[in-house]
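chain below, 428 aa
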Amino acid sequence: MKSAYEVLKERGFIEQVTDETLIKNMFAQGPVTCYIGFDPTATSLHIGSLVPIMSLAHMQQCGNIPIALVGGGTGLIGDPSGKTEMRQVLTREQIDYNAGCLEKQLSQYLDFSDGKALLLNNANWLTKINYIEFLRDIGRHFSVNRMLAAESYKIRMEKGLNFIEFNYMVLQAYDFLYLFQNNGCALQMGGNDQWGNMLAGTELIRKVCAKDAHAVTFPLITTSLGHKMGKTEKGTIWLDGNLTKPYEYYQYWVNCDDADLERFLNLFTFLPLEEISIVKKLSDAQLNMAKAVLAYEATRITHGTEAAQNAWRASAEAFHSRPVDAELFPSSTIPREAAASDTSGIPRYKISRKDLDAGVQICSTCAKAGLTQSISETKRLIEQGGIYINDRQIKSIDEKLTAADFGSEKEVRLRKGKKKYLILEIQD
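prediction:
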């Protein structure tokens, strides 16, 4: 059986490591306890956090013990890594609330029962530190010159690095030491921007405990077009289903670029690599089926099977998708039959019958309902032939929507281009 490190490397998770030979030996000797920190500055994580989350899930599936560390303590200070300006400082109450939300969210990906994974909050030890003792016992191991040479501090030095932020590296290193001493955690994983902080932790453990600890970083994941993961014209794609609906989440993945498909299947699903490798040979309809599998599996992992099936049915109905061939990705649980008519997952917008009797401008309705970003965008799309009502192309920017467009039904379908749908329904 492959070690978790081998699995992560094969699937494209690994960027930098402290010592690959020693890390491989550590995995060969038995279960490894590792940790990743999550910043509680919002009530939800977003798609950009999926690589670290999925890495912890792979660690657990391979028999290791992952620790998801919510930064309730470090969040009170703020991580300067990758930031050009100091982030807004949140209150303890805000941080605690956000931390609670993240703890619940991470439970969707990891099994925390019976010690199979640990969910910890560094506020439990960082907020109890005696400052003088901390400076004497921990601070003396850090060289200010070496800290200032770290890339995360270099960026901030140009605009000013305050003393609060300067302490972040020390506190994160102490987190690693604390977990090493109390939970047997010898491996920290995280984004490439954390490399300097992670090395500070391994060095602190070496100085205090005279033992080895290791660090692994992940690459920054961007699309083939160079866009940051999870950023769309509508904003951030959140993992919280109340902030980003499962249907919208599904649509994000199903609309990925062809060049990203194989890589995304490797990173964001648990499908076997031998099944994913077939993507290189697919084209046209089968390539679209593979995208549906990516979208379904990613949605199932984050929102559960029922939500994934509902999103798949709604998408298949809206876009008249073919069912996925049974021979493609046999390990996927995506439904193989043709989708029955189901529009429950498509976003909806209510419009009053009274307004319809007088006639409603299509341009303003598309913008208000969220199909487009603005009235001006709607006008531009209409002029380019990109707005449809029940598959009828809108020809004029002055066209109005009336009750007659609904016929005997109480809803009509608006479409922007080929991929974005919205259902308008009459509110009596």
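Residues 82-86 have pLDDT under 50 and may be disordered. Residues 4-218 form a domain with the Rossmann fold fold (CATH 3.40.50.620).
thats it, cya
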